[in-house]
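Sample 3 of the quickstart, ligand S-adenosyl-L-homocysteine:
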Amino acid sequence: MVKARSPQVALCVLVAAGFLVAAASDDDPYTQDRREMVRRQIQARGIKDQRVLEALRRVPRHRFVPADLLRIAYQDSPLPIDYGQTISQPYIVARMTELLEPKAEHRILEVGTGSGYQAAVLSELVKEVYTIEIIPQLGESAAKRLTDLGYRNITTKVGDGYFGWPQKAPFDGIIVTAAATDIPPPLVEQLAPVGRMVIPVGSPDQTQLLKLVTKNPDGPPTVRTLDPVRFVPLRRSP
Ligand code: SAH
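Result:
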């Protein structure tokens, strides 16, 4: 004979079942890793913009790295992605993003989509992100990844970002995530008045210097030289 369960036992079963459902729906086991990443790698090195810090806490970096590197997705370094390219170190992403001074109403251009991670960080902060990648397979996989993750304000394109995206210009900010040998004039041209561009400049096989270019309404742009950095080269289309 089956005994009727007491109400207390039934209640416990219900509570346990509810807990399991809640645990199963929390599909991001890396939330804590991201908080630690922001605290130890980014705030500790002086990044203060609260919106930038929050964006870095939100974007699931582990979804942008190759599957075999999942466990080290939040470590303090760049990581290889396909085709010999890299996803930048989290601190560099934060530093370059903060230098852009992103505002909610901004439209930003990124040159060098790579994994799509930097574009995702920007998409949390501004109205529209445009991003160009020269390697078609990388551009296409990043576009799919960003759509799958639900980013709706990012427009991707495969092409040579040296020439920018004139049809979508002017941009409030431009970020170049590959090392250029010079500051591409078409990008300066496509900056809005008082717009800012962050770009690593220097020779591909050496340390480069991060430059902040500010477009002035009258007169030539101001160029400030900032941190030494190391990026993969900005390629030129044949
Ligand atoms: N921002 C990326 C990392 C970029 S690695 C991320 O968050 O993952 C630099 C990328 O720039 C590479 O994918 C490389 O293929 C791309 N690239 C190099 N030259 C380019 C060019 N001329 N135009 C557009 N993309 C370029």
